[in-house]
Automatic annotation (TrEMBL):
Keywords: ATP-binding, Cell membrane, Ion transport, Membrane, Nucleotide-binding, Potassium, Potassium transport, Transmembrane, Transmembrane helix, Transport. It is found in: Cell membrane. The keyword Transmembrane applies. It is a single-pass membrane protein. The chain crosses the membrane at residues 7-31. This is Potassium-transporting ATPase KdpC subunit. Part of the high-affinity ATP-driven potassium transport (or Kdp) system, which catalyzes the hydrolysis of ATP coupled with the electrogenic transport of potassium into the cytoplasm. This subunit acts as a catalytic chaperone that increases the ATP-binding affinity of the ATP-hydrolyzing subunit KdpB by the formation of a transient KdpB/KdpC/ATP ternary complex. It comes from Sphingobacterium hotanense. The system is composed of three essential subunits: KdpA, KdpB and KdpC. The gene is kdpC. It comes from the Bacteria. It holds the Pfam family KdpC. Its main location: membrane. Belongs to the KdpC family. PANTHER family: POTASSIUM-TRANSPORTING ATPASE C CHAIN (PTHR30042), POTASSIUM-TRANSPORTING ATPASE KDPC SUBUNIT (PTHR30042:SF2).
Length: 195
């Protein structure tokens, strides 16, 4: 028994060193090789700074909307709602999101509302939406910005991100990238920003 306790103590010390010291140091060192030094990618446009890899809310219906966030897009407290599909409060929340979306997008049928526009991601910070989630918002955004739907749809097609190595996962739309490109398009065409 004494030898088992000694082995357990040694294994605990080794695991503590590997997982609490060595592994975090390796990850930190790898992060230092990146341009951002592990602080996340920031982009600055028109004097405003944005975190590129974190989902965010966009003010106004003239912007494409992100996935809902259970943590109000707070990167310091990421996480899902932990409510399952049998939770009545959660179902009511999703139903309210669907109703709000349909009011703002009257050309869309209930069955056409993509699930990612009415349910939060596991982290609550997903910066992407599905391609379908972008296309169903195109008519609203085009009307509020004085653009044609084909112009907006072409922009969506340009911004679309392919699956990883062309194999893993679906094509997606980075919402921040799309909204910034939309503002840029409005500026070049002399259109309005929906304000």
């Amino acid at each position: 028994m004494k030898s088992n306790i000694t082995i357990a103590i040694r294994l605990s010390i080794i695991c503590l060193f590997v997982f609490a010291v060595l592994y975090p140091f390796i990850i930190w060192a790898l992060a230092q090789t990146q341009a951002s030094k592990g602080k996340g990618k920031m982009i600055e446009v028109a004097g405003k700074s944005y975190y590129y890899h974190i989902g965010q809310a966009f003010e106004g219906d003239h912007y494409f909307q992100s996935r809902p966030s259970a943590v109000d897009y707070n990167a310091g407290g990421s996480g899902g709602s932990n409510k399952g599909p049998s939770n009545e409060a959660y179902l009511d929340e999703v139903a309210a999101r669907i109703d709000t979306f349909l009011q703002k997008n009257p050309t869309v049928q209930r069955a056409q509302v993509p699930v990612d526009l009415v349910t939060a991601s596991g982290s609550g910070l997903d910066p992407h939406i599905s391609v379908q989630a972008a296309y169903v918002q195109a008519a609203r955004v085009a009307e509020l910005r004085g653009l044609s739907v084909p112009q907006v749809n072409n922009l969506i097609a340009e911004i679309k991100e392919k699956a990883l190595w062309g194999l893993f996962g679906p094509e997606t739309i980075h919402v921040l990238k799309l909204n910034l490109a939309l503002d840029d398009m409005n500026n070049k065409l002399g259109g309005n920003h929906g304000n």
